[in-house]
Amino acid sequence: MNLMTVLLVAAALIGVGVWGALAQQTFVMLMMGIEMMLNGVILAVAGFWAFTGAGLPKGQVLVIITMAVMAIELAIGFALVTAVYRARQADMTEGIGSLKG
Amino acid sequence: MILFALVGVPLLAGLVTWVVGDRRLGVGSIVALGGVAGTLIVAIAVALEQPTHGLDWGGGLSLTFEVDPIARGPLVLVPLVALAVVVYASSYGESLGRARLLGLLSIFVGVMELLLIAGDLLTLIMAWELVGLVSWALIAHHWRGNAPADAAHAFIVTRAGDLGLFISAGAVFATSGSLQFSGFGAFTDGGGAAVHVFIGGIVFAAFTKSAQLPFSPWLFSAMSGPTPASALLHSATMVAAGAYLLARLQPALDSVGWFEPLAIGVGLTTALAGSVVAAVQSEPKKLLAASTSAQYGFMVVAVGAGYPGVAIAHLIAHGVFKALLFISAGVAIDASGSSRFADMRLGRSHRTTAALAAVGALALAGVPPLGGAWTKEAVVAAAAHESVWIGVFVVLAGLGSAFYATRFQLLAFGSRRVDELALAADRAEDPTGLRNRSTTALMLLATATIALSLLWLPWGEEQLLKVTGGEFAASKLWEFAISIVAIVAGAGWAFLLWRRHRLLTPFGSPLSSISDWFGIPAATKVGLVDPVLALAGWAARLDDRVVDAGIGRISDGAQATSRLLARGDDRIVDAGIGRVSGGAQATSRLLARGDDRIVDAGVRGTARFAAWFSRMLDRFAEHGVDRAVDGSGRLTGALGRQSRRIQSGQTHQYYALIAATSAALVLVLVLWS
Amino acid sequence: MIGTIDVAFVVFSVAAVASGCGVFRVDSMIRATYLLLASFLNVGAILVLLLAEYLGVALLFMMTAEMIVMGLFMVMFMMNPAGLNPMNMVHQPRFAAAAGVVAAAGVAVVAVFADFPDAPVDAESDTIRELGIELLGGSMLVFESIGVTLMATMVCSVILSSATGRFGDGYEGSVAPALEPGGDHRPADDLYDPDAAMGHSMHGMDMGGMDHGEMDHGEMEHDS
């Protein structure tokens, strides 16, 4: 277990997240893709802190900030999904297309 | 001298058998049998004496033949197994082509002995390639149906692995100038990139030959060959070449840090994956092929852990019982008329075969006190000596092998339900003495398997230590205990499924991607074969178009030039004659009308020139400018219309655009700084 | 020598990536949620292995609660929560796969080829205590800002998802106004289906064209 392997795992998670976010049709699965990407980012930041940070506590603060960002994104995302559904009855990304020009 | 006899006797016997042909099969069989038996005697003598010999080939290359202590066991194993297989093959299948089969088997014995006595990389490469060639000829023996394509598949995969040997030879020759095995120790101690290349090549070649992941699917293709070939080559001897090479060169290979984890990782993964694949097979030969890969995985783990002697011991034990199982599978296939488990269960009609096969199955499962169990325990000890976790995983693979060994025995030779006994009795015909010959072969191998049980005695362990020349790791009691528990668990689970009539499909409906090595062949086809074929087709088309076009143009040009020359020639000659004759008249007319003509022509010419100039201006200048302006306008309009398409209103396409642009941005930033 | 930590790391990371892939492959939505949870739990375990124990355990707790909430939303919004019908709802699959591979390759290239300084965390130091002192000391501003942001998020999400909108009931007040005065209240391609809005079937197409300011809210029977 060294920095390279941890970052490779984080790269795999980020790749899976990008794939999921771009390929899924429903909003909820899209958000799951974004969650996976943030998962990879958390792992990478923690890996950097463990191997190149020399135990500096500010590294851990960065991870806490990222976790908070995850929670905020989830909450606002679901509120928006609910609002969009109420307005347009759309639960898939193809359902809202009024920007088409 | 005796080394030449070792290689030459089986080669000669094989050639004679092949040449004598199908009309005098009796003579051919005796020659082949005699040749292999003679080889066995010579091999025992060579193993005891350990002679060496060298041949100077010129150009700084020389061939060395020596008998390393670790090669003594395999040297005797090959003709021993071959003896039983030739006995079985002498009445196997149809008589058309059987002479070639026996001949090739004998030739193979000679070439394999050459591989085992190779003392330098050049001899090894020659023997390695020849072994692959004989394997191809044997797999495609029937030359019908799938056999040629499967033989090509197996040959191509192993040949690709041989590239590794070539690269290694190049690396070591360029750096140290010699290919001798004895010099590899000093070479690898030196370090550097050449050492990594050398070791990588050898490991690659060994893994493809021994059907480790991800090269395992070729062994399945090899099962299209006749059963004697599978019994000799693809269980006991040819695939053993890879493990033998790793064990032989283990001290040199261990000098890089990545060899050990790679060998242990690949060997362990193959052992575990092979067990899973073997557990879901519906044909006995494929189950045994997957089992072969898994068992060679054990040997690779032992080499990786630093105990080549253990690997060779397991190689010897495995060779004997795997050939036994293959021959029994061949008998089962022949007796039931089909190659699928669903049509077998010949326990009651073939009691002797079933009992002898049970000996092999017990050895495969690792049940003490058989020899196969002792060597497997030695592998577990070696692995656990490296790290406890690896030992645990090896025991887990042992559970798998107990499961599929029991599965093989029960599905092929279990007793039928009562209502199916009548069908079995009908099918249990005995064609032309096959039973007796195969029983002889089976008995020979079963005796050898049981004889290896002597390893459990301290005297036997001493003899093995002397024969293989390696050392064994001390085995701890808890390893033995959990091994036994694993074997009981594996066999018990198989029995349980057998009772519930679910042994044929232990995990529900047959999962084709698992049974086909987890989809590796399909992935290879999509990722490797199809692009290469597409590239070849593209290159062929490119070649056609460019070459054809070039030649066509050249020929057109030549034709046009010749036509031009002909016209020019005609015109010049005709014009010359015409002019000469009319020149005189014209001159007089011209002189008469000279002044007026000149004046008129001058005026008209000026007018014409002016008109032509304005037309040209109109066509090229105004027209051209108009068209340019129009064109740019249309282009702008088209661009505008096309850029509207980006606004699709679909969120996912916007995201895709963001992702692509971010990637491009990152690329630009990275390259710019 | 291969230690227990390495084996554990390999097992956790393989499980994290495998369950991450499985999230987008399974048919049942609840299983996708739990596979995402499994991925997070494995990453949390890896964080514990990296000696960031507090972060790992906090991740475990937080993600468990988040996934429960997400499960609720799955059941609300998705058409196949139990996975009884096999379905494959993807668009632009090949581009997405290529983009995923490119993203992973980009990070992997950095991981393999970049030259990182070597300053591993000291195994004996008390990282949790240092984190606590840092959070309530030097990074107090960050901590407080996160708190305020979370509160803003809570308020925001309640507002966004409340049923009573700015100009009336959520279903009707969030409707886009007409493109031309006196025309339909929406472009033709996204007229909303009145029957889909339960309990509000009286808000039919006759609303189109009416000036919203003249509506008498007292006539509406809706729960305010």
How big a fraction of the residues of chain B is strand? under 5%
**DSSP helix fraction of chain A:** over 70%
Question: Strand pairing plus helix content of chain A: what structural class?
Answer: mainly alpha
Tally of contiguous helical segments of chain B:
25
Number of strands of chain A: 0
Give the averaged pLDDT of chain A, no decimals.
89
Whole-angstrom Rg of chain B: 37 Å
What's the short story on this structure?
The complex is a heterotrimer of chains A (101), B (673) and C (224). By secondary structure, chain B is mostly helical.
What does this entry look like structurally?
Chain A has a single domain (about 5-90), classed as Helix Hairpins (Orthogonal Bundle). Chain A has three helices and no strands. Chain A is about 80% helix and about 0% strand. The termini of chain A are far apart. The mean pLDDT of chain A is about 90. Chain B has about 675 residues and is mainly α. Among the domains of chain B are: about 140-505, no CATH class; about 510-540. Chain B is built from 25 helices and two strands. Chain B has helices spanning about 1-20, 25-50, 70-90, 100-115, 120-140, 145-175, 185-190, 195-210, 215-220, 225-235, 240-250, 250-255, 260-280, 285-305, 310-335, 350-365, 370-385, 390-415, 420-425, 435-450, 460-470, 475-500, 510-515, 520-645, 650-670, and strands at about 50-60, 60-65. In chain B, a hairpin with a 2-residue loop joins strand 1 and strand 2 (about 60-65). The longest helix of chain B has about 120 residues, at about 520-645. Chain B is elongated and about 135 Å long. Residues about 195-224 of chain C have low confidence and may be disordered. Helices cover about 55% and strands about 0% of the residues of chain C. Chain C has a domain at about 1-80. Chains A and C meet through helix 1, helix 2 and helix 3 of A and helix 1, helix 2, helix 3, helix 4 and helix 5 of C.
